[in-house]
Amino acid sequence: MAGVSAIYSRIIAALTGVLVLLGLYLTSLYSYLLFHSLAEIFSIIVACGIFMLAWNSRQFLDNNYLLLLGIAFLFVAGLDLLHTLAYKGMNIFPGYSANLPTQLWIAARYLQSISLFIAPLFLHRNLKPHSALISYTIVFGLLVGSIFYWPIFPDCYLEGVGLTPFKIFSEYLISLILLGAIILLLGYRREFNPGIWRLLVAAIVCTIGAELAFTFYVGVYDLPNLIGHILKIMAFYLIYKAIIETGLVKPYSILFRHLKQSEERLRQYNADLQARNEELDAFAHTVAHDLKTPLSTIIVCNNLLRETKPNVFNEEQLELTQTVEETAFKMNDIIDDLLLLAEVRKAEVEVEPLDMARLITATRRRLARMIEECRGEIISPRTWPVVLGYGPWIEEVWANYISNALKYGGRPPRVELGASAQPGNMVRFWVQDNGAGLSAEEQKKLFHSLARLGQLRVGGYGFGLSIVKRIVEKLNGQVGVESEGVPGQGSCFFFTLPAEKGQGNAGF
Question: From CA 133, how far away is CA 142, in angstroms rounded?
């Protein structure tokens, strides 16, 4: 249905165009001067419209082709206006023959053709709008001065003789320049919307046809002159369709063409990156899972050797078996972290109200041996606000934060837990230690992948805080750290979660 409507609209537009051209032809039969004035006024209005569109959107344009054409067409419109006022029968410039409007015509066409030729070269070059405007003003002044003031512009039309060789040669040269503009547009075809590119090429083809028609007339009211002006009307109408109408109705097709292409490339890049991340997650999960079995075998075999032949090994060998066991358990922890990281990235979980006191108790039991060995003290409130999250993951967050506080805190470590209400119905949970604190530079690196406190302190494998960040952000929260970098004052690691609905000020 939409296709039929589009075809119907095109047919109506084509019929309207034919009727307009027929009306202009009938106007020429009544008064050629009126026809000529209407034709030139139309092209002047279109040229000024291109300038206004390009100039007023110059701060947002990523397309210097349009900006250069807009500036150029302003001065083309100025020469065309002088050409219209100087045309035979207007009697605005007394004392001048038909040579004057013909000179102005050639000057305007040179300016237009050369601008169309060089404009594609600025698709990937910088253009200073004010410098371009000044340059065209100087060229315009020199052209007008060479015709009116000095005058040194070659004759283009002689009464009773017709067109001069210079005028005819110029029309052919202008046609060649326009043909070169089409060739350049072919080379830069991908830089344009396909529909706009076709309209621009068609406009230049019509302009070439007009220039060739203007090589045949003898009198300024002759048929070739009429055909040339009709082709000029068609050329400027196509430019209007390509630039003004499209620029207003579909600005992303012309004003921000490169921006739209960049967005599409970025969208494709993100899609590819997401696919690669999914493949990487699947690979990491598979490798980590497959490593568990041989690692368990290593641990069991190492324990059997130590238990069955304790007198066979000397002291150094026993230390080696102990090292094997410790390394195996550390590797097992790394594998568990990889599996958790892959799970967090891939899994979709349903959030539910969390019993934070129960999760803290579970975390204490999990870290009981560490707490005992370092003689750590953990202080936490008795009651907690109810938030929305996923219990197993939040237990991992607490375990990571508290274990880091025990590792890198003072001696003995003192760890304080707490919660506070935040704007937007969020709750902030925090873990304060009494360690050496972190510098601003260290704080920036903590939550990035594979960044670790161990590089700055005494150990670590770089997955913990990265996993914490992924967990909390997936549950619509945020993570962070606050520290003055002063020994003894420690650091405060925190994360936020949405409060359960209906709690008022986050349950406080």
Answer: 14
User: What token pair was written down for 362?
Assistant: 């579970």
Instruction: Give pLDDT tens digits for 445-479.
Output: 777 655 444 444 434 435 678 888 888 988 999 99
Question: Which residues, 6 or more positions from 360, have their beta carbon under 8 angstroms from its beta carbon?
Answer: 380, 384, 398, 417
Give Cβ neighbours of residue 78 (< 8 Å, ≥ 6 apart).
140
Q: Which of 369, 296, 336 is nearest to 463 (CA)?
A: 336
Map 445-492 to HEC letters.
Answer: HCCCCCCCHHHCCCCCCCCHHHHHHHHHHHCCCCEEEEECCCCCCCEE
**Bridge pairing between strands 491-498 and 479-483:** antiparallel
Antiparallel, parallel or unpaired: β 157-158 and 414-422: unpaired
For residue 412, is the peptide bond before it cis, meaning its omega torsion is within 30 degrees of 0? yes
**Which segments of the chain have a pLDDT < 70?**
1-4, 6, 62, 246-266, 277-293, 295, 305-306, 308-314, 317-318, 329, 332-347, 448-463, 488, 502-508
How far apart are the two ends of the chain, measured CA to CA in Å?
A: 60
CB-CB contact of 351 with 389 (8 Å): yes
Determine if residue 507 is left, alpha or beta; phi over 0 gives left, psi from -120 to 50 gives alpha, anything else beta. left
Q: Which helix (H) or strand (E) holds 69?
A: helix 64-85
